[in-house]
Design brief:
295 residues, mainly alpha, 9 helices
Length: 295
């Protein structure tokens, strides 16, 4: 099976998606708190989490998990699989040598953008499900699940509605994956050059932690704009609050200042860094496990 051409081709995608899905099951409650903070909840992360549990029960921290898993099955499957193939192609062009940082960044940008195009519908559905309880009772959509949410979005806004905020989503994904994937590979190479064994836990975990920071710092402003675009509802006169992502960013900068883009940064980095760690740990462990089964 390990020599099967089809399996070799799909393996990076299968492992990428599976790694992201397992990490999401662990991180989902933190993601819920992050979204609530971005949408205006007051207090620190622990206060927000406590309020969510008191109001809607512990299970509400996992609201939108089905959409989150669908997002990983699409977006992360694509981005990690594409990144793996792009870096392999680039290494062959470099005669097997380690890639310079700019080439890793370029691979991360391309993988993030292409993956986001695939994952935007699930990303929008996840956000809608997580944000629903923040709306007044009469405005809540009360989705029954990810399938119901997608069908109602298409019915109410058309198929294009699934891609609302798609531009910011793609840009945010490009920034995140450039920061995460390029810095992860670069950090692991530097840690290995310091004397640690290739594939050991020190470079894997160390690289993941460094990757989590850069992924957070690069992507949060775009994530903030994306969240506002996807959450916006029509004004009483029927117009939308923002004409587009650039208008959203400019209005936010003008009315609330540049630091507003980093609202919820402590929670965001706490979510992104562990998700990066778990995803990359699983991504490192799965091929070793598959090898034991001849895959």
């Amino acid at each position: 099976m390990s020599d099967n051409k089809v399996w070799k081709a799909v393996k990076p995608y299968v492992n990428g998606g599976a790694s992201g899905m397992m990490a999401t099951c662990i991180i989902q409650p933190i993601d819920m708190v992050k979204v609530r903070l971005q949408l205006g909840a007051t207090g620190g992360p622990l206060r927000v989490a406590k309020d969510i549990i008191a109001k809607d029960g512990f299970g509400s921290l996992y609201r939108g998990l089905s959409a989150g898993l669908l997002r990983q099955a699409t977006y992360t499957t694509a981005r990690l699989g594409i990144f793996s193939q792009l870096t392999e192609m680039a290494k062959k062009a470099n005669n097997g040598q380690n890639l310079p940082l700019w080439q890793k960044a370029a691979c991360g940008l391309a993988a993030g953008g292409l993956g986001a195009l695939v994952g935007t519908p699930a990303d929008l559905t996840l956000l809608r499900m997580q944000a629903d309880n923040t709306l007044p009772v009469e405005q809540r959509r009360n989705y029954k699940g990810v399938g119901d949410a997608m069908m109602r979005i298409v019915k109410e806004d058309g198929a294009a509605g699934l891609f609302r905020g798609g531009g910011p989503t793609v840009v945010r994904a490009m920034a995140l994956n450039m920061g995460m994937l390029a810095s992860n590979d670069q950090a692991k190479e530097m840690i290995q050059a310091a004397g640690f064994e290739k594939g050991s836990m020190v470079p894997v975990i160390g690289g993941s932690l460094i990757a989590g920071f850069f992924a957070s710092a690069c992507s949060l402003p775009f994530d903030f704009v994306k969240t506002r675009m996807q959450k916006m509802q029509k004004n009483p006169d029927g117009t939308m609050p923002y004409k587009g992502p650039v208008d959203c960013a400019m209005q936010t900068l003008k009315n609330e200042g540049p630091l507003k883009f980093y609202t919820g940064f402590p929670t965001y980095i706490v979510r992104i860094a562990p998700h990066a760690v778990f995803t990359l740990l699983f991504l490192d462990a799965l091929p070793k496990l598959e090898k034991n089964f001849g895959l």
